[in-house]
Amino acid sequence: MKRLLLAGALALGSLATAATGALAADWTPPGPIKLLIAFKAGGGTDTQARLIAEELEKRQGWTIQPEQLTGKGGAVLAAAMKDMPNDGSVIGMLITDAFTYSLEASKNPPYAVGDFTTLTTTAGFQIGIVARTEKGYTSWDDVVAEAKSGKEIRFGAMSPRLGDMAYLIGKHYGIDFNIVMVKGGKGVMNGLNAGDLDIGWGAGIQTKAVLAGDMVNLLSGLSKRLTASPDAPTLTEVGIDANADGYFLFAAPAGLPDDARVALSDAIAEIVEDQSTKAAQFVEKGYGGVVVIKREDLDAQIASEVAGARALIEAVSE
Prior knowledge:
Elements: H1 2-26, E1 33-37, H2 44-60, E2 64-68, H3 75-81, E3 90-95, H4 101-105, E4 116-124, E5 128-132, H5 140-148, E6 154-157, H6 160-173, E7 178-181, H7 184-194, E8 199-202, H8 207-212, E9 215-220, E10 247-253, H9 258-273, H10 278-286, H11 295-317
Helix pairs in contact: 1-9, 2-9, 2-10, 6-11
């Protein structure tokens, strides 16, 4: 009897999935889709978004109109998009941090997680602590030893969250890092190359230099090891209960109809999962691989990151 009931439940689930798929297949946007991009033109996120937009037009016949709306790691975009039409004519590409740490750290947040409908991720962060190879650091232990010998270590960070992470790492080791806040990952790379920084956070922008041997990832800021530097330990592995996990994602204003949500998220995911597309190849090369988390699963991931953000804020305030 249990087996029959299970089979019946599976059949009903299949019918529900098929029905949702049929609705999504019938969905068409009410007009051109405005694609808001939270990062500056010409950068990796912008390139990724525009390649996806081109493929959406090719495959779906939709008209996609990319538009930059930058500032505060996606918070400016989110604050504006929450009041835009929720009929599928507006979507945005930003990062999960805009819904997690940025909100938790804000005293007067201009939006809430519930103001949005999540669609899908395309890739995860590749955040690591990086240094120029010529600095002579061969492991994270070298940095700790040099700092404890009395040398000032200038530590570059490009967001408040990563600044807090740098402080937490220093606190763990009893090191007073000179934390230097810069503008974007490019600012960290420029600081390292100019000799103005000793170490700094890279969010994937360092990968090309690491693979070329010009830079080295000393520590992974993620809950897992970095794709380009599997020998670099994670924060957890060195005794620090924190991580900077996050994802690049697409979202829309709250209240997006289910058929539009399924159609948009599936269409985007299909592109980045198809290795024959330029978008997928770009993500694979520049972001350590494609990571697709959709709809309800993405909501759960964001909830998990919110919990992590709260723990980080509490830890640095002690």
